[in-house]
Amino acid sequence: MKKNFFEELRQQGKMCFLAPMDWYGDSAYRQTMKKIAPHILCVSEFYSADGLVHSKILADSVLPHTKNEKPLIIQIFWKDPEMFWKASKIIEQYDVAGIDVNMGCPAKKVVRSGHGSSLFINQDIAFKIVETLAKSTHLPISVKTRLSFDGNQCLIDFAKWLENAWANLLTIHGRTAKQAYTGKADFTQIYELKKHLSIPIICNGDIENYDDGINKLQNLDGFMIGRKSFWNPWCFLAWDYHPALAEILEIMEFHAQKLIETKGEKKWSLEVRKHLVQYLHNFPWVKLYRKKLVSVENMNDVLFILSEIKKDFHDSLDKKPSLGEIKEEI
């Protein structure tokens, strides 16, 4: 992909990104999201540059992806610029659209190791990482970060240096690293930042759905949704889209099937359980099926439960659970 990839996308309209989410944003999840909303850009789970360099097994298990996931951006983290350079050479082999650098993860383990949001403090290393990547690969480089580490750092100065180091796009989460996911995301500083940079700026944090994202954009170039997609993969559709029960069951089957194809049946059961119940987040009768859904052992179990729901609620398949159209009575 060319360095001006994000600039070309900006000229086509506002950009919508699926956020990088550890333990969630795998190939099956991305394929499911793209089936519903083909216009979105997906960012992978975050992988350590060191891990990709020293483990071909890891690289071969997480970097391959389907054409349905394209354009796919791979997010990596670490603190050694040279390791980023080495990782970029491996990532280039998998026909991805870009490399995203994680400078926003607030997890204590990540911060203590000098990775993620700690780079907001170790800014010389942060700039060197981006500069090294920009020079080492033909792929566009983006950075995902936060308003600051603890409120004592200047976002505008930090972002300007990242742009000067040849970052092609920045995504800003509207909280500090110290806040993690507490409180409410605030985009005020991000709107101000946009006035000082020429590269695309994406906002992230507490965006409920497509309509909410568009309403919050103001002068920004796009938005990113993460956790809100867990129980609502339809969140990227316009006009406050609410799926019918039949649509939800269809996507549950699709997601489960893609997990088998990408993870194998041995890993599949543990992975699929955390997703299935979330799909029925607004379904008033989820309690009847929760125990079964978190105990599935194979795809036949999933198909049996889905057929059971279809049979029990055959008169409600065209109704929308999130609008309260299915009542707690049979």
**Could you report the average pLDDT, rounded to the nearest whole number?**
94
Major sheet: size, sense and barrel closure? 8 strands, parallel, barrel
Strand residue content: 5-15%
CATH architecture of the largest domain: Alpha-Beta Barrel
Tell me the number of helical segments per DSSP (H or I, 4 or more residues long): 13
Name the helix and strand elements from N-terminus to C-terminus, one letter apiece: HEHEHHEHEHHEHEHEHEHHH
The residue ranges in which pLDDT falls below 50 over 5 or more consecutive positions are: none
Q: Share of helix among residues?
A: 40-55%
> Which descriptor suits the 3D outline?
globular
How many domains? The number is 2
What is the C-level CATH assignment of the largest domain? Alpha Beta
CATH homologous superfamily placement of the largest domain: Aldolase class I
Whole-angstrom Rg: 20 Å
Strand arrangement across the biggest beta sheet: 1-2-3-4-5-6-7-8
Distance between termini? 54 Å
Number of distinct beta strands: 8
CATH topology-level name of the largest domain: TIM Barrel
Question: Which structural category fits the helices and strands?
Answer: alpha/beta
